[in-house]
Amino acid sequence: MLYCIDLKTNQVHILGCRHIPKKNVDKNFLGRFDNPNDAITDAGLKGYTNVNSCSDCCSSST
Ligand SMILES: [Zn+2]
Predict the structure, then answer these.
(1) What pTM was computed for the model?
(2) Distance from residue 15's CA to the centre of ligand 1 (Å)
(3) What spacing in Å lies between the alpha carbon of 13 and ligand 1's midpoint?
(4) What is the domain count for the chain?
(5) How much of the chain exceeds pLDDT 90, in percent?
(6) Does residue 10 lie within any of the structural domains?
């Protein structure tokens, strides 16, 4: 899965989620990860704080 982050809410989304901001300045591409947790961890490493996952596209099935 490809993930991006909403820069206003620090919410991680899977690419294609309808909750991703439309403006490029409001989002940032994170990369390809196997699961939302990895994307959140990577976002933390990139300096984002209070990162959370979108309950719509990242609701874990595990
Ligand atoms: Zn989402």
Answers:
(1) 0.91
(2) 8
(3) 4
(4) 1
(5) 94
(6) yes
